[in-house]
Amino acid sequence: MDEGDLGWLYGRNSTRQEVIMSLYVGVRIEISNRTLKIKDLADTYNNTNSMAKIFDVHDNGRIAVEKSKDMLIARGKQEDRVHTGLINFSLMLPIETTEKEIERIVKIVNVLGNDRLIRERVKTFVLGQSALNKMPEFAGLTNVFKNMNSFIPNFTAIAWYYAPEVKFK
């Protein structure tokens, strides 16, 4: 019996190599547009912070749910018909792992959210009262959220986050 025949035993194809990639896992932030005074938030933040990155900023946006491969993922959408008064953006941590591992993380967060996106105040996470605080993949967000106060005054008190959000590429 060669190694390829053992795939049934391990629940996977044991001869296939998993590719480790630089991916991102994090949350989608939503705040009032009155609180953001920086025009190019993503560029300003990304140039000064190497721990986390901001992607996909929507000035007049809303949060949407993307359903993909039995996963629910937070996404931002630009709203053109109605004025929302809200800004949303991705705040993500880099992670060196496989796509399969990212899918596993998303599915765990979906279970914690009872098959819905988790929506909480950032303050809940910073105080250690969120279910996501127990997940090591999200541990770095506490310092990232605190650091955001220097870019957006009172960020931890006024912002909401939706989880999970991932960037596969």
Short structural summary:
This protein has 169 residues and is an alpha+beta fold. The chain contains 6 helices and 7 strands, in the order H-E-H-E-E-E-E-H-E-H-H-H-E.
Q: Given the helix and strand composition, which structural class is it? A: alpha+beta
The end-to-end span amounts to: 37 Å
Helical content (DSSP H or I, runs of 4+): 25-40%
Main beta-sheet strand count, sense and barrel state = 5 strands, antiparallel
Please state the average pLDDT score: 88
Helices and strands, in order, run as: HEHEEEEHEHHHE
Fraction of residues in β-strands: 25-35%
Q: What is the number of strand segments?
A: 7
The neighbouring-strand order within the major sheet is 2-5-1-7-6
The number of helical elements comes to: 6
Q: Give Rg in angstroms.
A: 18 Å
Tell me the overall shape.
globular
Integer tally of domains: 1
Uncertain segments of ≥5 residues (pLDDT<50)?
Answer: 1-15
List keywords for this structure.
5-stranded antiparallel β-sheet; 169 residues; 7 strands; alpha+beta; single chain; two-stranded antiparallel sheet; 25% helix
Notes on the protein architecture:
By secondary structure, the chain is α+β, with helices and mostly antiparallel strands. The protein has one domain. Helix content is 25%, strand content 34%. It is built from six helices and seven strands; from the N terminus they run H-E-H-E-E-E-E-H-E-H-H-H-E. The chain has a five-stranded antiparallel beta sheet. A hairpin with a 2-residue loop joins strand 3 and strand 4. The longest helix has 14 residues, at 99-112. The radius of gyration is 18 Å and the shape is globular.
